[in-house]
């Protein structure tokens, strides 16, 4: 499952858990993006922060792991490169790529989209506020998952105005955000709790 994970939240974790269960996956590899090319105009937190929050959020699940392939590869992240790197590291694995409905809708605009279908089986999951389109392909599955109306954008906006993100993101991620002062609005006091 690729993502910016800025920060990782329970929408990501529920989607991953549901797909793992429904498709009987041995492992879900969370892959924080390097420079996300779709988001290059906006500011994205340092890759190390996003990586560590993803590690904290997934640490308790024995089937969840985190890969550095995208953050260690220089330049913008393309899903084609992510899947090639994962395949190289796990040559025997059947790869599934998990995306939410919004990312699925953009998929046809991705670079080298035809190559992508050969690299992995794509699973599009439902996401509140986004329609999940049937691409009419047998190598793409659609899965309805419990509706979690959570986005990283909303979590960042909440932190910026000192609103809580408890229970939207894992407890350790709440604490990590506070510890490093991520997403704070300019001029906010440094000790305003959550
Ligand atoms: P941002 O608001 O910064 O774009 P985001 O919440 O969309 O953050 P991403 O890191 O962009 O999170 O998403 C990574 C993947 O997780 C994408 O495929 C996205 O569609 C999916 N996803 C994110 N949130 C949810 C959710 N609440 N339910 C289902 N899928 C989700
Ligand atoms: Mg997003």
TrEMBL record:
Keywords: ATP-binding, NAD, Nucleotide-binding, Nucleotidyltransferase, Pyridine nucleotide biosynthesis, Transferase. Signal peptide: none annotated. InterPro entries: Cyt_trans-like, NadD/NMNAT, Rossmann-like_a/b/a_fold. The keyword Metal-binding does not apply. Residues 1-158 form the Cytidyltransferase-like domain. GO terms for biological process: NAD+ biosynthetic process. It is an enzyme of class 2 (transferase). Its EC number is 2.7.7.18. Belongs to the NadD family. NCBIfam families: cyt_tran_rel, nicotinate (nicotinamide) nucleotide adenylyltransferase, PRK00071.1-3. Catalyzes the reversible adenylation of nicotinate mononucleotide (NaMN) to nicotinic acid adenine dinucleotide (NaAD). This is Probable nicotinate-nucleotide adenylyltransferase. It comes from Sinomonas atrocyanea. The gene is nadD.
């Amino acid at each position: 499952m690729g993502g910016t994970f800025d920060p990782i939240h329970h929408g990501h974790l529920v989607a991953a858990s549901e797909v793992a269960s429904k498709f009987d996956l041995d492992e879900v590899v969370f892959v924080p993006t390097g420079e996300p090319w779709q988001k290059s105009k906006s500011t994205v937190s340092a890759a190390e922060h996003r990586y560590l929050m993803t590690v904290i959020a997934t640490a308790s699940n024995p089937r969840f792991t985190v890969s550095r392939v995208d953050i260690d590869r220089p330049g913008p992240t393309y899903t084609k490169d992510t899947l090639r790197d994962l395949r190289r590291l796990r040559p025997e694995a059947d790869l599934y790529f998990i995306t939410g409905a919004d990312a699925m809708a953009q998929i046809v605009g991705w670079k080298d989209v035809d190559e992508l279908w050969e690299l992995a089986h794509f699973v599009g999951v439902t996401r509140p506020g986004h329609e999940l389109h049937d691409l009419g392909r047998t190598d793409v599955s659609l899965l309805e998952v419990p509706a979690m109306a959570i986005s990283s954008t909303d979590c960042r906006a909440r932190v910026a105005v000192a609103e809580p993100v408890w229970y939207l993101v894992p407890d350790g991620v709440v604490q990590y955000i506070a510890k490093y002062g991520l997403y704070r609005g300019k001029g906010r006091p440094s000790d305003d709790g959550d």
